[in-house]
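Before the break, one more example. Copy the sequence into your notebook; we will annotate it together after we see the structure.
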Amino acid sequence: MSETPEQLLALLEAPYWKTPGSTSRKTEGRTARRTEGAAAVNLTVVDHIAAGRQVLATAERIAAEGTPRALRKAEALRQAQALKSLALMGERTDVRKIPCPYCGGFGLLLSKTGRAVCINRHCAAAGVQRSWGLVELLMAPPARPSGVRRSVTRPRDDRDPAAIIRFLANTAMPITYDRFRHLVRMYDLPSWASRTAPSPKSRAYSLSDVLTAHAIEVAKRNPSDCAAAPKPACDGLADAFFKANDDSRDNIIVGLQANEAKQLCQGCPFLDPCLAAALAETDELHHGVRGGLNAKERRLLKTQTKTPTKNLRNGRKPECPRGHLRTQQNTGAKGNCRVCTREKSAAARAAKRDAG
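Here is what the structure looks like once it is written out:
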């Protein structure tokens, strides 16, 4: 991507791009044509230019802070804006030059909603593709490939070698046919009879298998200190884990069932801090699966472990009516003081002995 976001916005301001129908996006509906007539300019482009100017102004304001994270965020905003402008012009392949933040492969595609989706089947969790917003994608650290996975049965993404080479030609790390044959031999990638080639000897390979093998070779040639950082299991699956359904805000989530999400959480290296952060937050994020628990389970756990720290009236530590300090250990499930309960039971037993 050689053009700057300012240059791309200036190009979109040209008369050609402002002509209605100059992009692949639909600029108006039948209702607008019926009631208002055809637009004089391409409103999609005009709105994109206005929003782009605001994004660049925001990036400049963030960069003025001077901190490393602020500079990184500002650059991510600028690059994301450039990718959106290129997508509006019909060029949606530049996102392939960015490796997937989770699997490290060059299998990202730009969806119609403007999110980067990884098409590597081995990167998906429980059959759900990982996706990132463009700013989130550009700020994510590099990933370390976990290892080559081979398809046991014939997958849906089987492609001829030429098609796989053409797919990787638009990435930052293209491969030649000889390199492709090297990956097949080195990692013993399975093959099947080609669906398109007329010759029965022609073979097809899984695109996902090749992407994972290619990612490992790229990591070997370009080692990175950041690549060793562990990744959360929910990385790229935020919508599936945290987006609540309209009918329930507890364990019905979009894209993944709650039990499948919990299974992914059990192997996550960030399970404990994720649960602690979820318990410490307020109600606006209490939905979906976080820290291996759904919202109902987290609320129950938070209620059970909740211990008052001070009296709201005088600021002193809370005590029961008999003067015993209220702590988590001596507070029962119903809020009763366990010390008082033991004292009352001992007194009752003593009175019974005296009476007998």
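The CA atoms of residues 126 and 260 lie 7 Å apart. The mean pLDDT is 81. Try to locate both features in your own notes.
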